[in-house]
Amino acid sequence: MKSETSVKTTERLEWGGINWKKVERRIFRLQKRIYKASKRGDFKAVRYLQKLLLKSWSGKLLAVRWVTQAHEGKNTAGVDGVKSLSWKGEINLVGDLKLGSKAKPTRRVDLTETVGDAPSRNGDQTIFDRAGQGLVRLALEPEWEAKFESNCYGFRPGRSCHDAIEAISNHLESEPKWVLDAQITKCLGDRINSDRLLDKLGTFPRLRRQIRAWLKSGVMDGKQLFPTKEGTSQGGIIQPLLANIALHGMEEDLLKMADQLSGRKPVNRNELSVIRYADKLVILHEDGAVIHHCQQVIREWLKPWGLELKPEPTRIAHTLDGEDAGFDFLGFHIQQYRVGKYHSGKDIKGNSLSFKTMIKPSRKAVKEHYERLVRVIDAHQAAPQAALIRRLNRIIIRWSHYYSTVVSKEVFNELDYLLFGKLRRWVNRRHPNQTGKWVADKYWQSIDNRNWAFAVRGHEEIALLKHSQKPMVRYVKGKGAGFPNGGNLSYGSIGNC
């Protein structure tokens, strides 16, 4: 880090003149050293390198840049009312950024969108606290990525929902299984035992004091302050990492339990699959009794953390047999269906199977998506056609891309049919006295190979995209386990598990 001091003075002059590639390279090298030291168990080196990163000018630059430019909550204000900073303010924030033992409360806000069936509440922190948490995350993440279990996928670099779904698909290739589909209450909220979490972190005193200050900072609802007795309020940048740290070890304890089970068919860790994405959990096994036992073990495991399983979403089902066969996970429905010998799949050894595993968009996800499209169309009743097309395209692109890795063609065609009917009603309300031919000529065009494209012609040609235009491409799970900044260049790249 010899070049750190020489670059510091030039980087203070103007935010736009910073060479971000060099800054990212410095932090990459530090994170790589932290990851490797944690992997080999050299925690003295881990603490030294973490302190070096927390003092690093490059680390502070990246933390401030991420909070003020890249983070999705960059334009939200905390209790201090500051929404954004000028480039001079950003440079000053970099200079002032340091760890202490104080933190300002989180401003609580209501969100219009829902999580599950209940309205969610979120919190906004001050820019200074968000930048501090971003800096701490740069230091803590490589240490814990060296420890995290391989089947934990939520809020981790280089991992996604599709990795979790593909992991489930791989475990269901050879035989039907029983499944525990569960969700942990307020795992990302304010229920986690903060003292137990700090003990598990086991970090050096200065960082421990700062994290404790964030955990105990309280929440401002209007002008009233509510103290935080447990956990941390929603909205913290470091919060998903802390939640993963708190739940780390659950999978290994379940696998040890499987090894120790006796009195049944031989059970070992290779037959039990534990897949977790943030607070959502799936456990697969061929024996239903083992699944029921896992449910009890998880409940006991969560009690010291002040957490529990949500009663309503938590259910035990079979992937093939039964009226309620299959389960929903991360917006996908996973189920196995019996088929004849000419449609059967094959297992790893090439043996024919009497079933096929199908992964589709869940009914709830399809319904919510269509209802969102309907709300957008109703809200644009008096808007120009081009404005409606742009808004719908943004929604359709994201949704169809998310589900393009599974069996979605039939669902995509059905959504296109329903959307066409809704748009017909939209144009008829705008022109109640016009003929059908006049309306069709005005709003539907022939573009490329499409004869009925909801489009606008003129100096700017814009057409509504169809869900079915998105090609189906099977997602390939990333290779192995590791941390992108840990030097494992194959991590996060496509390939076989």
TrEMBL record:
InterPro entries: DNA/RNA_pol_sf, GrpII_Intron_Splice-Mob/Def, Mat_intron_G2, RT_dom, RVT_N. Residues 1-334 form the Reverse transcriptase domain. It comes from the Bacteria. One of its GO terms (molecular function) is RNA-directed DNA polymerase activity. The keyword Nucleotidyltransferase applies. The keyword Transferase applies. Keywords: Nucleotidyltransferase, RNA-directed DNA polymerase, Transferase. This is Reverse transcriptase homolog. It comes from Limnospira platensis NIES-46.
